[in-house]
């Protein structure tokens, strides 16, 4: 297998690689810093990475991949319960973190290595590593129970990034700007490792803002990655920000992912800038599956066509493949290819359940296909996955957290449409004391402290009882906000 980052040694030394705010590293500086960190962790099996939106996170993950060590990105906003589960499940040898930053209690017993972005070391040759070697273990919210660790092999990273390079005509001349978190696939694999594999550069905003987008796209950046919440805020700001209009109009590629971008926002951006946002479709377990191509039709509401090397089919409820490309026949998306994860860590039962007997991964997403092969996702097979602000959130873990509150007797969680977030989290609660039900702020703080702030409910509705079927299962379809 070839190196994951041939550009580290094959790119002009003074070429910009990373920029986070006022801090930046050239390819020579990144190679030296990653080489030093790789040397310090080469004997580890797995390392946790305190994945703040900083230079140190990028250097740490590049170092781990060069050393052939699996990196486990940790969301810095995770609650202690979630962190303890991830650390217990993944058993990392140490945690890589920025110097001086305080880490929460669950990490107290783990050896810590501060990442020095100015250190110097030799770049290890990773070209001899097996393509099946784990690159990342990324924890994904299931619909029930604690998060599962998806083991992503090196071949999945290279297959996805090279397929996107083909689809998007992505080269070393591209400069990517984004403000995405670095603890999941979108910001870390696509938004950080992607430019570095191509020999291009990435400018991370630290915190997303339309002023930062305008500044970077007006000063050399060619591509913007975002989630629908970000593009919604861009669409809202365009009438008042002529510099933003001009900046977006000059971009080579605007890409949205992690959830569907509403057609209204597509049209507002296109009308103001003359540029159309393209969408792609992926999951933690599969990395990227489809995309609208740079040379294809950017059709609002679709996620394009399968990427090179990705097999995609729609199947009916009985598992029969759907052959009609009529834009109407709905089926579950199943995929296979080098882009897939290997397993859920320590969960052979969940891994087996995720695949068909002939090796197709069951995504749980429902879609239709047009006559030209374009895929349009129409919803989840289950009702328990909520896409809010670019995150995929499992209702089950929020329900479990709510049930730990003394004022909650029963709880169910659903999503409902939200113009900004895509979906907002709604908690349906049967209070322990109907005369004194817990407030929204109280429950939101309770959930945010246990899980993460983006998993907090935005709406609470109190009920006398939850609707259940004869088996006692909550009938979520009966929970409506009308």
UniProtKB/TrEMBL annotation:
Pfam families annotated for this entry? AMP-binding, AMP-binding_C
| InterPro entries membership | AMP-bd_C (IPR025110), AMP-bd_C_sf (IPR045851), AMP-binding_CS (IPR020845), AMP-dep_synth/lig_dom (IPR000873), ANL_N_sf (IPR042099)
Q: Where is each AMP-binding enzyme C-terminal domain found?
A: 397-473
Q: Which domain of life is it from?
A: Bacteria
Please list the residue ranges annotated as the AMP-dependent synthetase/ligase domain.
Answer: 10-345
NCBIfam families, A to Z: PRK07787.1
Family named by the database record: Belongs to the ATP-dependent AMP-binding enzyme family.
Query: What name does this protein carry?
Result: Acyl-CoA synthetase
* Annotated source species: Streptomyces viridiviolaceus
């Amino acid at each position: 297998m070839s190196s994951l980052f041939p550009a580290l040694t094959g790119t002009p030394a003074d070429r910009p690689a990373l920029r986070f705010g006022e801090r930046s590293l050239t390819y020579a500086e990144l190679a030296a810093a990653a080489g030093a960190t790789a040397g310090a962790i080469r004997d580890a099996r797995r390392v946790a990475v305190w994945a703040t939106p900083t230079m140190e996170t990028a250097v740490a993950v590049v170092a781990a991949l060069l050393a052939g060590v699996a990196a486990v990105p940790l969301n810095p906003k995770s609650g202690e319960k979630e962190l303890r589960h991830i650390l217990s499940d993944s058993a990392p040898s140490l945690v890589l973190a920025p110097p001086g930053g305080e880490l929460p209690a669950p990490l107290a017993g783990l050896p810590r290595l501060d990442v020095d972005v100015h250190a110097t070391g030799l770049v290890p040759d990773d070209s001899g590593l097996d393509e099946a070697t784990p690159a990342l273990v990324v924890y994904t919210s299931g619909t029930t129970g604690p998060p599962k660790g998806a083991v992503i092999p090196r071949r999945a990273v290279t297959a996805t990034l090279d397929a996107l390079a083909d689809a998007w005509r992505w080269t070393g001349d591209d400069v990517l700007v984004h403000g995405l978190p670095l603890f999941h696939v979108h910001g870390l694999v696509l938004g950080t490792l992607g430019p570095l594999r191509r020999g291009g550069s990435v400018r991370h905003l630290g915190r997303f803002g339309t002023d930062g987008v305008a500044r970077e796209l007006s000063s050399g950046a060619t591509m913007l990655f975002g989630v629908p919440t970000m593009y919604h805020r861009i669409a809202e700001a365009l009438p008042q920000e002529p510099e933003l209009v001009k900046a977006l109009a000059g971009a080579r590629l605007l890409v949205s992912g992690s959830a569907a971008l509403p057609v209204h926002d597509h049209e507002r951006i296109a009308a103001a800038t003359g540029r159309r946002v393209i969408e792609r479709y992926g999951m933690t377990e599969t990395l990227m599956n489809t995309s609208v191509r740079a040379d294809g039709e950017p059709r609002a509401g679709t996620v394009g066509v399968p990427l090179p090397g990705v097999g995609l089919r729609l199947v009916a409820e009985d598992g029969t493949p759907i052959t009609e490309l009529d834009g109407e026949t709905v089926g579950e998306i199943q995929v296979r290819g080098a882009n897939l994860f290997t397993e859920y860590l320590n969960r052979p039962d969940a891994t087996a359940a995720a695949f068909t007997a002939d090796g197709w991964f069951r995504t749980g997403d429902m879609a239709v296909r047009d006559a030209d092969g374009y895929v349009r996702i129409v919803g989840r097979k289950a009702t328990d996955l909520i896409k809010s602000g670019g995150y995929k959130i499992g209702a089950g873990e929020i329900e479990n957290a709510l049930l730990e509150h003394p004022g909650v007797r029963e709880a169910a969680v659903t999503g409902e449409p939200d113009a900004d977030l895509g979906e907002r989290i709604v908690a349906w609660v049967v209070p322990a004391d109907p005369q004194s039900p817990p407030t929204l702020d109280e429950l939101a703080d309770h959930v945010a402290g246990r899980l993460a702030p983006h998993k907090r409910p935005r709406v609470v509705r109190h009920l006398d009882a939850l609707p259940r079927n004869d088996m006692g299962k909550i009938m979520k379809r009966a929970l409506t906000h009308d």
